[in-house]
Amino acid sequence: MIVPTIAGDGVRLRGLRADDVDELVAGYNDPEMRRFMPMLPAPFTRAHAEEYVTDLAPRLFAAGGGFYAVTDPVSDRMLGGIGLDRVQPGRAQAEIGYWTAARARGRGLATAAVRALSEHAFHTGLARLELLTQRENVPSQRVALAAGFQPEGVRRAALPGHDGERDDVLAYARLATDPPGPVERLLPDLPGGELTDGVVTLRPLTGADAGFYAELHSLEDIVATSVPPIPPTPEQVRRRCAWAPSHWLAGDRADLIIVDTATGTPAGEIDLYYQEPRTGQAMIGYSMMPAWRGRGYPTRAAQLLSLWAFAETGIARLIAGALPENLGSQRVLEKAGFKREAYLRSRLPGLDGRRNDDVQFALLAEDLLIEGPRLDG
C-alpha cells in the first residue's frame, strides 16, 4: 500500500524501509527506551526489526493506524518512530505512541512529529487521540503537553511492567477541536532550573534524592508533624522522589530540596501543594535536617518559593500550618511574612488515633511588597 509522507516542523514522517533496520535495532535496544517499553523482545534483533518493516507496519496501516519513521527532512535518516494504534472507527479514536533515538533527543523532534501526525489523523477523520505514558517518563509527558494533549487522569495497572508487575499510566488526550499546543501549565519550570538568594538554593526533588528524603522523613519530630504521622515505606519514598517531576508538570505539587549554596549540601525540603487552582490558593510545608536548623534557611526558602509562586503562577494566596507547640515553625512563617489567621481544632490526624490542632497562617503577594524580607532574629 502507499504510505503518505507527512511534513512537520523540522521533521518528515514516512513509511518504514529496509534500510531503517539498523536504526530500529539501535533504538529498541536503548536502555532508556526499554525502561518504558517492557513488552519489547530482549534483545531486539535484526529479525524483529525486519518483521516490523515487512509485517507489523503494514498490519497497522491496514487496521486504519500506521507506523512511520521520523526522519530528518534533508538527509532522510531515521531519527525515531511514531505510530497510531488501537483504532476504534466507531468512536473515531486512536492511540498515539512515539520514540526518539538517543542522539536526536532534546531537539523538539518528538513534539513536532506528534503534532504532524495528530493533524494528519484529524484531517483523515479521527476525532480523538489518546496518549498514555508512565508516571516516571517525564520527557514523554513534556511532549504530550507541548503537542496539545491535555491530562485526563491515571489508569491504574493499565500496562504490563517489568518482572510481572503492572504499571499505572497517565492518560492524555487531544480532540480535533483542540489547539495544537502547548497546554498551559499551572506550575512552570523554575527560571534556570533553580531559585537562590546566594545563601540557600531551591532545586526540584528527583529520584536521586531518595536517600536524603528517607533520612529526613525518618526523624521523629518530622514524622510527628507529617500527615499521617507515620514514616514512609521505602517504596513510598522512591515514588515520592521519582514521581515529583511528573506532579510538577501536572500542576498539583512542586517539591524542592533546600540546598546550602556554599557547600551544595542538601539541608531540607520545601513543598508547594496547589490545592485550589480555581481560587488561586496553595499550601507550603517544609522540613529541615537538625544540623541545619537555627540558620534561617526555611525562612529564606519560604520567601524564595513565595516570590516565585506569586510572580510566575496564578497563585494569589499561600497558606501554611503548624502545631500549636511548634513555635519554631510559627516563627519561620512570621519571618517569611505569613500572618496568623486561624486556630483549627482537631484538624490533623495524630499518633495513636488522637487529633491535633492546627495554627493556620496565610501570605498574600502584597504582604511581601509591604514588609519585605524579615530574616533577622
TrEMBL record:
Coiled-coil residues: none
Gene3D superfamilies xrefs: 3.40.630.30
PROSITE patterns: GNAT
CDD domains xref list: NAT_SF (cd04301)
Gene Ontology molecular function, alphabetical: protein N-terminal-serine acetyltransferase activity; protein-N-terminal-alanine acetyltransferase activity
Superkingdom classification of source: Bacteria
InterPro entries registered for this protein in UniProt: Acyl_CoA_acyltransferase, GNAT_dom, Ribosomal_N-acetyltransferase
Domain (N-acetyltransferase): residue spans on this chain: 11-176, 200-366
Keyword Thylakoid: no
Pfam family, one: Acetyltransf_3
Annotated keywords: Transferase
GO cellular component, one term: cytoplasm
Name of the protein described by the UniProt record: RimJ/RimL family protein N-acetyltransferase
Protein's organism: Pseudosporangium ferrugineum
